Fold TetR family transcriptional regulator.
Amino acid sequence: MADTPDPRVTRSREAILAAARELLREEGPSAVTHQRVAARAEVGRATVYRHWPRPEQLLTDAMADVPMPFFLDPATPVRPWLERQLRMLADQLALPDVLAVTTALVQGARSEPQITTRRDRLATTIGQQLRAALTMAEQAGELQTACDPRDAPALLIGPLLYRSLLEPGPVSDDLIDRLLHAAGTWTAGSAISNPPAKRPTSPTTEL
Amino acid sequence: MADTPDPRVTRSREAILAAARELLREEGPSAVTHQRVAARAEVGRATVYRHWPRPEQLLTDAMADVPMPFFLDPATPVRPWLERQLRMLADQLALPDVLAVTTALVQGARSEPQITTRRDRLATTIGQQLRAALTMAEQAGELQTACDPRDAPALLIGPLLYRSLLEPGPVSDDLIDRLLHAAGTWTAGSAISNPPAKRPTSPTTEL
DNA sequence: ATCTTATGAGACAAGTTGACTCATAAGCCG
DNA sequence: CGGCTTATGAGTCAACTTGTCTCATAAGAT
């Protein structure tokens, strides 16, 4: 069939993207060159050039190949849902693939318009998901004195990003409780509504 | 005097580091090569090689040349002091130089031991400063139910880092109030102790 | 079996990297 | 100010990388 792609093309592109992704994870964006990707993928250098004529295309496609964190549709009660989502986000941000793309996004966004666009899109998506969840919580009466919706991503994700980039290691339940508390006052019936007392950090499982 | 450096050496090194810093700010770490730095600094390529035989050395020295955010010694009442420090930190994190080094640190830390060390040192320094301030606040009776000291940097700096890297733009006073609130309960007499009501974001001046 | 199309080895030109030589000039010292 | 030391920088060189191209080979479809 004319619109079924040639299996050789499919095979080559998958091998190339997988190799690019590996190099990105192991050594960062500067390692994603046609020569190194061809060697790693065990394909001809010309094949890499044929599919991706410019190195920036190869890098951005390799980055796009990595599933980035997102939130599932919110559910009531919102607080335990959000707690789980933040826990999941913390775990995802610790994954080498996700971390590689995250750092490449923030680094590349400073000078590459295409990467700036991708970063903005990711921030917009995750921000909207969070705002929708907080709005739902307010409407359900779970949340009072909510923060400015524009500040929600920074308040709820910022600390997890900080941990991921500057202090890698397990993220405690206490920290996640604190994030939720920073977003506003949660009513009883949706878990703890006051700041939790200081207690020992509980280690969390990591992949 | 034998230990007074040759002014030619001083002049060359300053020109080279300034050029490296500019390229780092404008295009990121991959632009900091001997060839490009020599051209920008208007010195001989051999001179750059003589002072910095390997490109990693040049990059890390250029990064070290940029003053990174830090906190001044805490003062009581701690809360207004911390508020000012966080405001200052937000402003510094928006500076192109600081942003360039920040992104280079988190990117490079993934695969370069020397850069990992620098990142860890920065995180340790700023964390200790914060912990000292919060301890002082607790001892002065300003702060109750303080967060786990290990979580303080993530809670207080994380949102500012998030803004800097993923949502550049002015940081509101409201957001900074929220960070302080996340760190614990502040008593009356050290500014607002309850979560602030939602109010319009106040634009802040940026350099 | 035949035709179409993707692949890949290798060649080529141009550029980059790292090391080196040596002429020139900056800087110090008496 | 002359002599000596030392830093600089233009240019060279080998090795490597990048991007493009050719063409033989083989995969895939019919």
User: Anything to note?
Assistant: Residues 6-8, 33-35, 45-46, 49, 53, 55 of chain A lie near DNA strand D (CB under 10 Å from a C1'). Chain A touches chain B through 54 residues (CB under 8 Å). The radius of gyration of chain A is 21 Å.
